[in-house]
Amino acid sequence: MELDSSSMKLKIKPISYPVMQISLKNGSEHEDDFLETEVTFPMEFWLSLALTLKGGAKGMGAFGSQGVISGLNRMSQRIMAEIKAEERRLQFKETYESFTNFVVQINSRTDLDDVRKGQIIHDMACKLKLEA
Amino acid sequence: MWEKDILELSNLLQYIIDQYIYEISQYNQWKQRADSIYEEKLHKILEKLLTALNLVSQIITFEIALQKLSLADRQIYGSLFHTAKEILARTDLDEIRQGQIIYDLAAQMDFNFEQLEEFEQTSLERQVE
After folding, report:
1. Which residues of chain B neighbour A109 with C-beta distances below 8 Å?
2. Which of A4, A72, B94, B96 could form a disulfide with A57 if both were Cys (CB 3.0 to 4.6 A apart)?
């Protein structure tokens, strides 16, 4: 988005939910006059974005490019999935953390082959049985 | 090691475990004629040994279960581990997200888990020859 000679870039990656990356550039000639930061946006904003994307895809109808339509739909679905995933992360924060540590420990074991490591990780995940 | 050998070894270990269980059950009898400190120590040692032997038995059972895996299952386990490794290497994800992604991936793979669990259960319940 450009405002006069300044510009603002918003980088939206569903995987980084609820954070978006904002790049601000002033119109001056100095190259240093540039700011890049991460901002946390509320869930409602992301939800609204997902619905807008879905609505946009629907509005294109038969005349829109199928690639664009499926891209918008996919982006909308990914945002919705991340919103749900964030809920689970908040609910099982400690479990996920300790599970990652467990995987790190298994990864560092030299007495096990890859199949065995995979099986141990799988077994542990099945034992956890996390339910939202 | 062949499956038959592993089973024999497992049975042998089970036999040893049973012997120690017998020893512990006799604890009250030899308690009267032995020094109390020595008894306590011996009892602890026996308990530890029992735990260790049980662990070995479980590991062997686990190994048998692993051998029962088909080639396709082994590949899936291998690829799960490789994916987990890749996720761990990602710097844009925190530990919670990494854990969640790996967990979700692993939890989806419930292909043979019930069969393995059943097999493990029957192996543990088997009679000592």
Report:
1. none
2. A72
pTM for the model stands at: 0.60
Q: Which of A38, A34, A15 is closest to A25 using CA atoms? A: A34
Residue B58: its pLDDT value, please? Answer: 73
Cβ neighbours of residue B73 closer than 8 Å, sequence gap 6 or more? B111, B112
Does residue B72 sit at the A interface (CB-CB below 8 Å)?
no
Same domain? B75 vs B95: yes
The answer to whether residues A48 and A112 belong to one domain is: no
Distances (CA, A) of A94 to A127, B83, B95: 15, 22, 10
Q: What is the three-class DSSP state of A21?
A: strand
Query: B17 and B50 in contact (C-beta within 8 Å)?
Result: yes
Residues 6+ apart with CB under 8 A from A29: none
Q: Do B81 and A99 touch (CB under 8 A)?
A: no
Interface check for B114 against chain A (CB to CB < 8 A): the answer is: no
Q: Are residues A30 and A60 in the same domain?
A: yes
Phi, psi of B70 (to 5 degrees): -80, 170
Give mean pLDDT in consecutive 10-residue pieces for chain B, a chain of 129 residues. 62 69 64 61 71 73 71 82 92 90 84 51 41
Q: Is A79's pLDDT higher than 80?
A: yes
Angle at A72 between CA A68 and CA A73, to 5 degrees: 115
Provide the pLDDT for residue B128: 35
